[in-house]
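Notes, p. 3: input format for complexes.
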Amino acid sequence: MSYIKEKFKAKADELSAEVKDLLKNHGTKKIDEVTVAQAYQGMRGITGLVTETSLLDANEGIRFRGYSIPELREHLPKAPGGQEPLPEGLFYLMLIGELPTEADVQNLSSVLSRRSHVPNHVFDAIEALPVSTHPMTMFTVAVMALQTESVFAKAYADGMSKKDYWSYMYEDSLNLIARLPRIAAYIYRRKYKNGDHIQPDGMLDWAANFAHMLGYRNEDFKELMRLYMVIHADHEGGNVSAHTTHLVGSALSDAYLSFAAGLNGLAGPLHGLANQEVIKWILDMREELGGGMPDKAQIEAYVKKTLAEGKVVPGYGHAVLRKTDPRFTAQMEFAKKHLPDEELVRIVWLVYETVPDILKDLGKVKNPWPNVDAHSGALLVHYGLVEYEFYTVLFGVSRALGVLASLCWDRALGLSLERPKSVTSEWMKLFVEGK
Ligand code: AMX
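Output follows (435 residues plus amidocarboxymethyldethia coenzyme *A):
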């Protein structure tokens, strides 16, 4: 067994014993109550899930095992000559619960590189779809095609013991994370670069190799990919992609089935697809205003028009956050350092100065501040990745790190099949009448 796997097992055994005690001694303690509104309105604010990898504070934003995004940028190992954290390090942190050393990250990088081979039938499955298919659909189909490789599913069919679930889930998770950049890059090159594919470079780290296979050689773009893969990885357990992966995994579906389900949630416009919606919205605005840099009054009028048409302003608002998303701020800092004069970036910043006041004036929007998706498109366009339909695939590759680390923990802790109770509106009416 690899030392990282051994370390995970030791951590998991320790926490399993503590959870057993918690359940034995405090299992009946209430941690929350549920209102009628919460049952109808997306279960917002109900504490009802356990996720080890990260925790979201409404004002401070996400913390991964206690570390905020600025702290991760400072403490996680970097590539030689680089300044952004390596996503392999974040995966280690989410899985093990401790900051990795440089050696840990290098080890994980080479493990992923060795496991990255994608069987041909996965490419055939992608090729069977029309080129016009949305890249997220191609991505999910490819992950489903890769399910043939699940060691968890095979071991389950062969009759594995409950105590081994974590081990096979761990193997599947690493294998899947290792293969995703190749699959995503294949989809990109097939759809937008006439199928002119680029072979992986085993000398590069996971995110830099992804950038390379997408066709971007620029060192700053590799740095952007490392940052992007870190900040999109996890956002505690209740968001649609994380919750779906966890829910499907609770049926003992393997990592491929569970992650593909999560990806389908990420593909929704209120979740991960918002990153393509934002840049589309900005480009449409610029075109409608005749091109060039709009001023604040023009942006204000365009935002009001969007709202009057009954649409949301993409990239703004959040179900849990109540302040500017630190993932937005991290991208803003990257842009200030590397591309401060990029017009699209300056539009993003001017939109940031304009939108919150308008949303606040509506009186119903709980969070008028930008989320992670408000900034990413402008950075990607600058480096030439203009095909915005592809952006959610990038998000998905990153999200795998968090949801698959969580899935390993789910099986290691022996979490149960998820099955909350639902009621009908008839039941609700009788309930409020006290019947
Ligand atoms: N523009 C216009 N109206 C908005 C808004 C926005 N950006 N954000 C919230 N509202 C509206 C809601 O549509 C709702 O209106 P309704 O009462 O008429 O239905 C009202 O304000 C209250 O909503 P809320 O409680 O503040 O938000 P929520 O928790 O229901 O939804 C979210 C959160 C993210 C879906 C919502 O803010 C939104 O639609 N934002 C735009 C899409 C987006 O950026 N999504 C990405 C989120 C991050 C991610 O997952 N990647």
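The beta strands are 54-57, 61-64, 67-68.
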